[in-house]
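Order emerges. As here.
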Amino acid sequence: MSRSVPKKVLVVVESINVDDSSGAKGRVALIKNLQRAGYELVVYHYSQKDIHLEGIRCIAIRENRKSLMFFLSRLERQLRHKLNVDLHKPLEERFGFSFTLFNDRNSILDTLRSSKEFNPDLILTLSQGGRFRPHHALLKIPEWHHKWIAYMHDPYPMHHYPKPFTWYEPGYAKKENFVKQISERAEFSAFPSLLLKEWMTRFYPNFSKTGIIIPHQIDPVPEKEINFPEYFNPAHFNLLHAGNLLGARNPKGLVKAFEEFLKKNPGAKGVAKLLFLGGHNKRVEKIARENENVYSSRSYISFKQVYQMQQAAAVNIILEAKADISPFLPGKFPHCVGAEKPILLLGPAKSEARRLLGYNYPYWAEIDEEEKISGLIENLYSKWKKSPNTFVLNRPDLQRYMSEEYLQEVLKLEHS
């Protein structure tokens, strides 16, 4: 009986430091599941530090600190910080991108061109934020375009974001042309959500031909002895939101709904807690100081510790902006699904998270529907109180959707 040979994949990624950002966590989960799916991997990363993923060859790309672009980027930075002369906007309006990005791109490009010993079948570029440095580099290697998968994690440029996030960046026309080139030159484009692919196809029609959906992946963290912080009692009714409350992700409705829930259910005050973990969430700090049932982290918490608390929480919260649509698949979504605990989804009526959970999913509301949210919390509390051990999400379909098994199918990998 013949056995299929796993395909070779070269991954070019911004960062594999899971404590760097939620984006890095998601990219690492995808890389690990590619390995589990049977691919032979080589990972080039621009994390600016030596990081190793077990069983995967990882090569750190070094920044070229001797180039003209490096000198110009540092000169621009010194003028801004020491002389208060900000050239960022006029430079990006002229060139489309910063000197720092150009130097980063060239550093990645030089490293990739010097690598000869690995002949991949596929080349996957992964980024985070609004940088897309690996994509910039791959555009300069036309001989690789026929096996390039360009992963588009978010809308780009910013004027292609849905409201209320949209705004015009300096050099937006050149940034738009950059994405147009990706849509036309990469053999495949990949999106974490169906709604994001449909959204970006409005601006770049070729994505409809090349686009595939690779959702954020579940990457189980090995179990070990857990030391929870003093503010987290796993036996209590903890409603946990992990991640920064950026921009339009306003927790005001949630907090007021939780306080109303406590007024109606005074017996819950001894066990119910609303926790906001991740960064410096100024929006809820004052409330947390005044209400012992609300907790807001004041400093960074490691990914592993947050992940452990997500696993032990009674309810995990996904909070999105007030908008007509949210085409994003939140980075925390696979962690919440993997935790097997009910999800309180607060966001637009049309969103990728709601599409996946189902439009009949009971624990959903708009972020400002305080009365409805309070009622949902009360319903969740009642079910938890009645049977905390059977209080689970129970969505094996979603677990499979974000697993290496489904990833294997998407990439049509024949592996025995």
Summary: DSSP finds 16 helices and 15 strands in the chain. Residues 370-386 form the longest helix (17 residues). Residues 250 and 321 are 7 Å apart (CA to CA). Residues 237-396 form a domain with the Rossmann fold fold (CATH 3.40.50.2000).
